[in-house]
Amino acid sequence: MIAIGEASRLSGVSIETIRYYEREGIISKAVRTASGRRAYSDTEISELRFIKRCRDLGFSIQDAVALRNLADAPSDACETVERLGSKHLSDVQAKLAELRKLEKALVELVANCAKGQSDCPMLDALKAR
Amino acid sequence: MIAIGEASRLSGVSIETIRYYEREGIISKAVRTASGRRAYSDTEISELRFIKRCRDLGFSIQDAVALRNLADAPSDACETVERLGSKHLSDVQAKLAELRKLEKALVELVANCAKGQSDCPMLDALKAR
DNA sequence: GCTTGCTTCTGTAGTGACTACAGGATGCAT
DNA sequence: ATGCATCCTGTAGTCACTACAGAAGCAAGC
């Protein structure tokens, strides 16, 4: 039986977040020891790790839960998984494109900022539409 | 005098968000007409646009406010502006690097998902640590 | 068996930056 | 006079946590 602190260390999910996941029904309620402390099994650690990995990949909690449910589901899971994955991939690619534009704009902005002048070209750039 | 709907259209900031900005003291309180409606001047539209542009560039509200205050400030503004800009640029670059890794992982994940199989390689990939 | 210090418990409130109502008043064109 | 768009205030919800407060349990050393 694994206590919550150890579960946190093993899964990489913080203690507060594990409790939050339980509260919200994202993971099932952990069994309690005689004194009321949460006790986890290896299976539950794996579940936490699965959720963590999905979150690290930028999936929403909702998607993470859907993927976890599919993980124990029957045949046609793979198609759904691929759909969620592709959708998320295109979201990520859109965000990448946006950030690249952003980076370019910021590089220009900062480059224009010649120090020591009384008027600031970067502020002017922000003011301009 | 410009009403809030028009101000929203002119600045690209939603009506709800303009009211939120006022409530939070991010912009100063708009003058009211006899009947209590908000009325904006060109200056205030510019202010909204300035904040909007900062937000679009990914600056926090806090940074946006700091930049706006600098925009009316004396000489040494430029240095501060450059500091904020550079800091933000490196944040953006870090996020870009993260997203690129993410994209790579997702591409692999989705590519591995050969449809129609009864076990799903993508789910296996998510399960593996 | 007592103290010390770490871990855990529940419950609540806060974060950032909005967004979404509900329920009512106002303005304008027909 | 009627209808519809626009606006008002105030409150609550979103997402995914994070941060307490205050109390209780546990393990080790003295």
- Specify the oligomeric state: homodimer
Number of strands of chain A: 2
Count of spatially separate domains of chain A: 2
Q: Give the largest interface.
A: A-B, 46 and 46 residues
* Strand/helix succession of chain A: HHEEHHHH
Question: Which structural class do you get from the secondary structure elements of chain A?
Answer: mainly alpha
- CATH architecture title of the largest domain in chain A: Orthogonal Bundle
Largest sheet of chain A: 2 strands, antiparallel
By DSSP (H or I, 4+ residues per run), the number of helices of chain A equals 6
What level of helicity do the residues of chain A show? 55-70%
Q: What general form of chain A does the structure show?
A: elongated
Radius of gyration of chain A equals 23 Å
CATH C-level class of the largest domain in chain A is: Mainly Alpha
- For the largest sheet of chain A, list the strands in their spatial order: 1-2
User: What's the CATH topology name of the largest domain in chain A?
Assistant: Multidrug-efflux Transporter Regulator, Chain: A, Domain 2
Uncertain residue segments of chain A:
none
| Strand-residue proportion of chain A | under 5%
Q: Provide mean pLDDT of chain A, rounded.
A: 84
Keywords (chains A, B): DNA-binding, Transcription, Transcription regulation
GO molecular function (chains A, B): DNA binding; DNA-binding transcription factor activity
Domain HTH merR-type (chains A, B): 1-70
Protein name (chains A, B): Copper export regulator
